[in-house]
């Protein structure tokens, strides 16, 4: 079976390295970009199955980049990886087409679940983001 292809977007190289190590055994990580505009360009060119992106990035934030991609007909599933626990960010990410909203503090336990859910068109939100434990 072919591995799902993932593109990462985060402006912290150390975090990109950790995410890659976490995802690589199960998925094909195509690469990483460090800002929202580069994400839009790379997603158009590479057509990944899933985008794992940070909310707060330079040039174009993750929410705006997701909106732009969806408006252009991008079919990639979107999983946000973030430090923001504010419900307004969660709502904005879901409204922008996100199927996953993962706390960076729970990345090791939640990210694989979120990607799997996104690939099957289901929403996954880290329990800490919804006030659960």
Structure in words:
With 133 residues, the protein is of the alpha/beta class. The chain is built from 5 helices and 6 strands, in the order E-H-E-H-E-H-E-H-E-H-E. It has helices at residues 13-23, 36-46, 62-71, 87-95, 107-119; strands spanning 5-9, 28-33, 50-54, 77-82, 98-103, 124-125. Helix 2 (36-46) runs parallel beside helix 3 (62-71). The longest helix is centred in the last third of the chain and has 13 residues, at 107-119. It is globular and about 35 Å long.
Low-pLDDT stretches: none
Spatial gap, N to C terminus: 35 Å
The CATH homologous superfamily is named: Response regulator
Known CATH architecture: 3-Layer(aba) Sandwich
Largest sheet: 6 strands, parallel
Can you count the helices?
5
Name the structural class: alpha/beta
Give the beta-strand count: 6
Text of the CATH class: Alpha Beta
Instruction: State the helicity in percent bands.
Output: 40-55%
Tell me the count of domains.
Answer: 1
What integer value in Å does the Rg equal? Answer: 13 Å
What name is given to the CATH topology?
Rossmann fold
Mean pLDDT: 93
Q: Tell me, what's the shape? A: globular
Q: What string, H for helix and E for strand, traces the elements in order?
A: EHEHEHEHEHE
Strand order of the biggest β-sheet:
2-1-3-4-5-6
% residues in beta strands:
15-25%
